[in-house]
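User: Sorry, folds how?
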Amino acid sequence: MSNYDPHQRVFAGTGDFDVILVRIERRSSCEHTNCRAQFEAFVIHNLELERRIRTKLETDAALEATIEVTAEAAKNEATLSGLVASETVRHSAIELAKSAHSGLTINDRIAVKRAA
């Protein structure tokens, strides 16, 4: 018997976003016959939540290209990161993101530029 874990998680960063891949091995004794389908649905859900947040952020021209979004739909949370011109713009980004989904928790990693 090998030490192979059929549900091993592999993390891969692409620069624009990180993807979690799950390697699944089909075994006759595996109780998780639909593991792959569940994982694919979960990833799509994360991407859909990110899309909804980005759509909200795109309504404000000051935020359109400056905020990065990552979401974890299972936890109903998202992380916003980037650099904005003012505290007002930062607050706007957080409020717009919260409006994308009911009860969404926002992890704020947005930095505000210092005045020159």
